[in-house]
UniProtKB/TrEMBL annotation:
Its main location: membrane. One of its GO terms (cellular component) is plasma membrane. This is Probable membrane transporter protein. It comes from Comamonas flocculans. It is found in: Cell membrane. Pfam families: TauE. The chain crosses the membrane at residues 70-92, 101-119, 139-168, 180-199, 205-223, 230-248. Keywords: Cell membrane, Membrane, Transmembrane, Transmembrane helix, Transport.
Length: 250
C-alpha cells in the first residue's frame, strides 16, 4: 500500500509539474504519510521530481534568454549558489522545526500559486517602462529565489516568473525557459547536497522518479485538455487541503 501511494502521488505530481506546477503538494505529504521523516521527505520528493525539470530544459531551450540585469553566466552561478545555500539550510533544520514550518510553507506556496497571475501583473506594474534594473537587485532577487527553491520547492516557479517580470523580461516563453533552467540547476545541486548529507531515501526516490516521469509524459496530454482555471484551482484546493491537514497535526 505504501508503494502504491507513492506511485500514485508521484504520477500525478509529474503531471501537475508538466502542466502548471504544484507537484510537491502531493509528493511531500505522501512520503510523510508512509513514515518518512519530514526533512528527508522534502529532500526525497525533490530528487523524484528532478528528471522532469531536466526534460523541461530541452523543451524550451530555443526561447532561453536571461532577464535584464543578468547574464547567462550569472544565472547559472546564482542558481547553483542559491541551491547550495537552501539545501545546506535544510540539512541543519531538525525534523521538529521543519514539521512546524511545513504548513506555513505549504500555505505560502498555495497562495503564490493561487495569485500567480496577479503577482506577475503586480511585477509588471511596478516596472518602469524601459527602465533597466540594477545588477545588484537582479543578483539579490535571483539568489533569494534560488535559495528558497533549494530549501523548499513549492511555489518556486511562480516566484521566478514574478521576479523575471519585475526585472523587465516581457516574453512569457523566455521567462518560462529561463525558469526551467534555474529550477533544474538549483534542484540538481540541492539534490547533490541532500545526497551528501544522507537525507535521501533512495528506494522511495527511485520509485517516485519513474512514476513522476511517466506521469509527466503521459498525463500532461490529458491535463492540457482541462480549462486552465479548472486546473489552477484544482491544484489550489489540493494545496489548501494539505495545508489544513498539516496545521491540524501541529
Amino acid at each position: 500500500m505504501d508503494i502504491a501511494l507513492l506511485l500514485i502521488a508521484a504520477f500525478f505530481a509529474g503531471t501537475l509539474n508538466a502542466v502548471a506546477g504544484g507537484g510537491s503538494f502531493l509528493t511531500l505529504p505522501a512520503l510523510i504519510a508512509v513514515g518518512v521523516p519530514s526533512v528527508t521527505a522534502n529532500a526525497t520528493g525533490t530528487v523524484a521530481l528532478l528528471p522532469g525539470y531536466v526534460a523541461s530544459i530541452f523543451g524550451s531551450r530555443e526561447d532561453m534568454e536571461p532577464a535584464p540585469g543578468l547574464s547567462m553566466r550569472l544565472v547559472i552561478v546564482l542558481s547553483l549558489v542559491g541551491g547550495v545555500l537552501g539545501a545546506a539550510l535544510l540539512l541543519v533544520t531538525s525534523n521538529a522545526a521543519f514539521n512546524r514550518l511545513i504548513p506555513w510553507l505549504l500555505l505560502a506556496a498555495t497562495a503564490m500559486f493561487a495569485f500567480g497571475p496577479q503577482l506577475r501583473r503586480w511585477a509588471d506594474s511596478h516596472r518602469a517602462e524601459g527602465a533597466q534594473p540594477s545588477r545588484a537587485k537582479a543578483v539579490a532577487g535571483l539568489l533569494l529565489v534560488s535559495g528558497y527553491g533549494g530549501y523548499f520547492n513549492g511555489g518556486m516557479g511562480i516566484l521566478m516568473l514574478a521576479l523575471f517580470g519585475l526585472l523587465g523580461q516581457t516574453r512569457l516563453n523566455a521567462m518560462n525557459a529561463i525558469k526551467n533552467l534555474v529550477s533544474t540547476l538549483l534542484t540538481a545541486i540541492a539534490v547533490a547536497i541532500y545526497a551528501a548529507g544522507g537525507i535521501v531515501q533512495w528506494k522511495e526516490a527511485f520509485i517516485m522518479m519513474v512514476a513522476a516521469t511517466l506521469g509527466g509524459y503521459l498525463g500532461a496530454r490529458g491535463a492540457r485538455k482541462l480549462p486552465a482555471p479548472v486546473l489552477r484551482w484544482g491544484i489550489v484546493v489540493i494545496g489548501l487541503v494539505m495545508t489544513v491537514l498539516f496545521f491540524l497535526k501541529l
